[in-house]
């Protein structure tokens, strides 16, 4: 199974957990990975295929906090 963990933020960036620090500050200041814009879409070569799994609500560099990744792993018997 392939699991994708995309990152995206609301247009006002209020869901960015570290808008004043490091890479996430750049995302906030430059409006990168804004939901429903071209820069939050999957690159054509990386688009999920049927059967792939997409992690929801990733807002930082780590794919676990605030997402459903742990439950996805449990549901798919992945340790």
- Structural class by helix and strand composition: mainly alpha
Strands across the major sheet, in which order? 1-2
The general outline is: globular
Question: Which percent range describes the beta-strand content?
Answer: 5-15%
- Round the mean pLDDT to the nearest integer and report it: 95
**Strand tally:** 2
Distinct helical segment count: 2
Q: Strand-and-helix sequence, N→C?
A: EHEH
Main beta-sheet strand count, sense and barrel state: 2 strands, parallel
Pick out the low-confidence regions: none
Distance between the termini: 13 Å
- Radius of gyration, CA atoms, in whole angstroms: 13 Å
- Helical content class: 10-25%
What does this entry look like structurally?
The chain has 79 residues and is mainly alpha-helical. 19% of the residues lie in helices and 5% in strands. The chain has 2 helices and 2 strands, in the order βαβα. Strands 1-2 form a two-stranded parallel ribbon.
Write a concise keyword list for the protein shown above.
79 residues; mainly alpha; two-stranded parallel sheet; globular
Which secondary structure elements does this structure contain, and how are they paired or packed?
Layout: E1 3-4, H1 22-29, E2 53-54, H2 69-75
Parallel strand pairs: 1-2
